[in-house]
Amino acid sequence: MTKKNNTAPHHHGNLREALINAGLELLETGGTQALTLRKCAALAGVSHAAPANHFNGLISLKVAIMARGHFMFTEAMQQANAQAETSPWNQLNATCEAYITFARTHKTLFHLMFQSGCEELEGADKQSMSENQQACEASYGTLQQVCLPFEHTGNNALNTETMVWSLVHGYAMLFADKDCAMQDVPEFSEILPRLKLK
Amino acid sequence: MTKKNNTAPHHHGNLREALINAGLELLETGGTQALTLRKCAALAGVSHAAPANHFNGLISLKVAIMARGHFMFTEAMQQANAQAETSPWNQLNATCEAYITFARTHKTLFHLMFQSGCEELEGADKQSMSENQQACEASYGTLQQVCLPFEHTGNNALNTETMVWSLVHGYAMLFADKDCAMQDVPEFSEILPRLKLK
DNA sequence: AAGTAATATTGACAGTGTCAATATAAGCAT
DNA sequence: ATGCTTATATTGACACTGTCAATATTACTT
After folding, report:
1. Closest CB to A170 among B33, B165, B179
2. Chain A: residue whose CA lies nearest to B160
3. Does the structure show a pLDDT above 80 at A146?
4. A-chain residues within 8 Å CB-CB of B173?
5. Residue B67 burial (CB < 10 Å; 0-12/13-18/19+)?
6. What domains are there in chain B, each with its CATH number?
7. Model confidence over B20-35: pLDDT tens digits?
8. Cβ–Cβ < 8 Å for A197, B151
9. How far apart are CA A79 and CA A82, in angstroms?
């Protein structure tokens, strides 16, 4: 039963990844409505019921896509870190900017990644859930690391993380599409310095 | 065509409100999945296609429900204001607590109210859209007012509003269900004081 | 080479949003 | 009051969706 690593094992190749890719594409082009098991199957060139062999229903595919989203998210933030100057504040600022840029660039995916409450995800299979949990921890870990230098007297790390995460996440959620904003919104770089960090 | 104000005008009475109520009930009991035109119609005791006379499709019903949600939201924040001490900081704190409590109490509705990007809402009818816009402005206005006293040298009001809104909204979105949190989350009252407000 | 497990297909079913055609009832003019 | 017009509700249909059971096909193991 153990798959050989490199070669395509079965009928399709590896359908699981293909379906996730198809789902990502549908999500970005057609919005949440377009993310459909049957459309994914069609895009991957298989029959409408083929996904059932890899995902325990639509919810599992969604969770798997969320996992992929969090990996992309982590990569984006880490790349921003790598390119930013190494001072703690520059690292934090670059990470937040990447956070917001990701939300703007992958609006639908970002919403999917964060919209779902816990109980909505029940029923997803173990593999998807595990992948998603790992990916979530990776993305949160990135933010956590850039917050760490700001741990000081009276400000424990958890408190600072939570504050920064809430601020950047709220900003990203509320103002990801500028068209929706009721008025002109100040840049995040004007807001972040108003946290008491040190 | 003008309706008399008090008496039920037609077959059902006023089906529009009944459908919104049904939608709210379905949302709270059965989650996002349960919000369905046909289920709303059944709950209101009409045929499956009756809603078409009041809503331009499912999206319009959703927008109307979002509007109702924002009205409830505004009421909750204003009630908290009324009960809190009148100092600016107490007012702000109470409003934020009410914000978070609403997100926790009406989790699914809260997500619906804020999840949808602009373009997903396209196609909703004018009445629903107008109601929702008014309700959004009302709820934002409440937050805006409690931020106003903190306008000071160098901090314009818009900047402060945006900061506070982002922080409380991010916190509410991320930690509305504690079960999902990766770790224990500090109370919001420990975070709010770390904004540079004055 | 044969057998077994994994994978994909086909067909079916209930549920969904939406549309067109029809029926019913309310409000208004005469 | 009577008839007309408009608003509202019903019925039936259609395509699309997720999901399941039965079957077929392929890959891996022995």
Report:
1. B165
2. A191
3. yes
4. 114, 169-170, 173
5. buried
6. 10-54 (1.10.10), 64-194 (1.10.357.10)
7. 999 999 999 999 999 9
8. no
9. 5
* HSE-up of residue A96 (Cα within 13 Å, Cβ side): 26
What is the rounded (10 degree) CA torsion for A174, A177, A183, A185?
70
CB contact under 8 A, B177 and A118: yes
Judged by DSSP in three states, A55 sits in: coil
Range B86-93 average pLDDT? 96
pLDDT of the residue at A192: 96
* Whole-number average pLDDT of chain B: 91
Helices (H), chain A: 15-30, 37-44, 58-83, 88-105, 107-115, 126-147, 157-175
Nearest CA among B66, B162, B100 for reference residue A172 = B162
| Each residue's pLDDT tens digit, A60-79 | 999 999 999 999 999 999 99
Provide, as residue numbers in chain A, all residues whose Cβ is less than 8 Å from the Cβ of B29. Answer: none
CB A119 within 8 A of CB B176: no
Q: Secondary structure of A95-149 in the HEC alphabet?
A: HHHHHHHHHHHCHHHHHHHHHCCCHHHCCCCHHHHHHHHHHHHHHHHHHHHHHHH
**Number of C-beta neighbours around residue A79 at 10 A:** 12
Query: Tokens 């949190």 belong to which residue?
Result: B181
- 3-state DSSP assignment of residue A59: helix
Q: Residue B198: what pLDDT?
A: 74
> Which nucleotides of strand D lie under 7 Å from a protein CB?
6-13, 16-22, 26-29
